[in-house]
């Protein structure tokens, strides 16, 4: 029965469970910055590899565009001849 009375009383430690508003704001700001940082870097493990893939993709796109322009600019360079 004595244990029940201890739970119902207000100790000084129990009344100070909430941090001060300033501390709470600081903690929320830190948590928000941590979430932003994690979201920015999620999924990208190797930035250099991503850059290389982008460069290869751009080079491939340029080659395709050049080939398309060459195909559409005038007569074809190879002709079939039959004797």
Automatic annotation (TrEMBL):
Q: Does the keyword Lipoprotein feature in the UniProt annotation?
A: yes
Residue ranges annotated as compositionally biased, kind Basic and acidic residues, are 22-69
**A Gene Ontology biological process term:** negative regulation of ERAD pathway
Q: Could you name the Gene Ontology cellular component terms for this entry? A: endoplasmic reticulum membrane
InterPro entries annotated for this entry? SVIP, SVIP_metazoa
Asked if the Swiss-Prot or TrEMBL record annotates the protein with the keyword Lipoprotein, the reply is yes
**PANTHER family assigned to the protein according to its UniProt record, in alphabetical order:** SMALL VCP/P97-INTERACTING PROTEIN, SMALL VCP_P97-INTERACTING PROTEIN
What keywords tag this UniProt record?
Lipoprotein, Myristate, Palmitate
* Residue segments, region Disordered: 11-83
Spell out the protein name for this chain.
Small VCP/p97-interacting protein
């Amino acid at each position: 029965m004595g244990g029940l009375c201890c739970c119902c009383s207000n100790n000084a430690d129990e009344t100070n469970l909430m941090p001060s508003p300033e501390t709470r704001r600081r903690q929320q700001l830190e948590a928000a910055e941590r979430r932003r940082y994690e979201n920015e870097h999620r999924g990208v493990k190797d930035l250099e590899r991503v850059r290389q893939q982008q460069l290869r993709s751009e080079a491939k796109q340029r080659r395709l565009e050049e080939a398309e322009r060459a195909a559409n600019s005038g007569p074809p360079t190879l002709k079939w001849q039959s004797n």
